[in-house]
Amino acid sequence: EEEEVQLWVAQDGGYIVRFTVEAKGQMQVEDGAVPASLRWEYNLKDVNTEFEIALSPECQRQKEFLDSLPMPETAENVEIMDNGVAFSSPDSSDEMADFIRKGMQGSKWVSLMDHDDEETGMYLFMYQQEEYYLDVMIGRPEEGGSFVTYLQREE
């Protein structure tokens, strides 16, 4: 394993103006260790001026996707994945299904399927927006509340 750290401090004021870290080594995963590397860089520039950080096209698509989804204020344990998002809520699965249905009305997503199983509290919705499909799964855990998974896939 290798690592290199650089720290630059302002002579007047003693604040950090540049900080870099580079590390190489092994990362533990389920099947053992794999080669891994990390690079982190901090640079202080133009104090008290505004600047904009542009998102990459991939990050911009992900942001637009996430922004298109109804997210309740009660969402907990939110996990963002490459192709979706999952969360739990103290709201019942029935309340969550109604919230999502209402939130999707008037959006760019077109409903293709709306299925519910009142006995188990499970709901399955499918939507389409251009070449993308959105699968929505809502469940009722034994401990109460609900869990929701949004998964996006291409045609």
Structure description:
- By secondary structure, the chain is mainly beta.
- The chain contains two helices and nine strands.
- It has helices at about 55-65, 95-105, and strands at about 1-10, 15-30, 30-45, 75-80, 85-90, 110-115, 120-130, 130-140, 145-155.
- The strands form two sheets. The chain has a six-stranded antiparallel β-sheet, with helices on one face.
- Strand 1 (about 1-10) and strand 2 form a beta hairpin.
- The longest helix is centred in the middle third of the chain and has 12 residues, at about 95-105.
- It is elongated.
- The two termini are about 45 Å apart.
Provide the succession of SSEs.
EEEHEEHEEEE
Beta strand count: 9
Largest sheet: 6 strands, antiparallel
Oligomer: single chain
Low-confidence stretches: none
- Give the helix tally: 2
Q: Terminal Cα separation, in Å?
A: 43 Å
The share of residues in helices is 10-25%
Task: Provide the structure class.
Answer: mainly beta
Strand order of the largest sheet: 4-5-9-8-7-6
Strand content: over 45%
General shape? elongated
pLDDT averaged residue by residue: 92
Calculate Rg over CA atoms. Answer: 22 Å
